[in-house]
Design goal:
With 423 residues, the protein is α/β, with parallel strands linked by helices. It folds into 2 domains: 271 residues, Zn peptidases (Aminopeptidase); 142 residues, Glucose Oxidase, domain 1 (3-Layer(bba) Sandwich), CATH 3.50.30.30. The chain is 32% helix and 24% strand. Strands 1, 2, 3, 4, 5, 6, 7, 8, 9, 10, 11, 12, 13 and 14 form a 14-stranded mixed β-sheet that branches. Strand 5, helix 6 and strand 6 form a beta-alpha-beta unit. It is elongated.
Length: 423
Amino acid sequence: MRLAPDIAARVTADQNLAEDFARLCDFGGRLAGTESERQALDYVRQSAGAATGMSVRSLPVAYRGWSARSAKLVLPGGKAHRCHPLVRTIATPPGGLSAEVVDLGRGTPEEFEAYAGDIRGRIVLVRHELMFSAGTIHRRRKYEMARAAGAVGFLIASPLPSALVSGSSGRDGDAGIPALGITPETAGLLRRTATGWPRVEIAIETVEGPAETETLVVEVPGQTDEWVVLSAHVDGHDVNESAMDNASGVAAALSALRAVAPACGSFRRGIRAMFFSVEEWALTGSAIYVASLSDAEKSRIALNVNLDSVAGSANLAALTSGYAEIEPLLLSVADANGHALQTIRPLLTNSDHANFAMAGIPAFRLVAGYDDPTANLRLVLTEADTRDKVTITELKQATHLTAAILAAACTAEPDAALRWRTR
């Protein structure tokens, strides 16, 4: 399972990897519905076409558009503090919202239960956590616990001093509560005192309505009608450059595609490269695509290789979504090509691989810095998710391993693809 010398040489010689990564960061955070996202999609369209010599298809993705016009947080004493509206938060009433704040610390289920009698009618404050860890309680879950307990607002504090945190509120449909990301210093001013809970004022103005983006697809056929899907999401957040999440994954996918595409004609399976958007909005782009597939089309996808936040640490992990039978392949390929790889089996619905996995398609997410609180990945969704947190060595490593996995998956025998589907 060692990568063929010609493919390995193309990975090593690829001069476009660093440029792709830098250009994607240059466009900004690529929040869905912005000019930044549109510029990035156009760039990826051109790059994917050039990488393969094939035409790039555009699949329309209709979704509920959202943008924030303004956001304000005023603490006791009348001083305004920096804040950032979470994606798809609802707006406050025109005059804003005034309520007391109850600080639930990390925001665990146990903390929500302990403070159950204090939450209704108040704003809940919790902390952002390392996203890539088995023990993580996702921001969207905390938001839903707050809403279910009767909170009228939601604040989440960044782990990085003086930095704001972003992310999706997790809101689905019209229901929801106003949600803001704040700095840890601001959170420190919202402690309960002998005089009671601190009271704040929140004002958020948003615009919502029908919107459309796209999923980009380029196919390099093999010798059969089976496919290995290589995916990465283009969209991000406007609080930063979305460098680790997910300019790194898009750049690595383009580089791996350039390296492996010339060999696809000799492979059993072809590569279908897919670049999704609105991933940060509850995995919407990939959800729409997977829902559109017939059972026959699903059966022809042997594996989804999803690249999301693949740099920012030298340590790589594969989140294998409960598909235990793909782990021997991944570990064998990694070992044969000089890579250390950790496999994490439980299904984690934190990127586009989850939609493939839940539809019965073997899928995994390649991610860097899993369960490492010191890795730069701890800065994802904060203002510090910028290009300086990524090295070209990390990008090359992710690309090389991805290329090796693609080649191995595309050439594996038919019974291997059937075995991978076992959960």
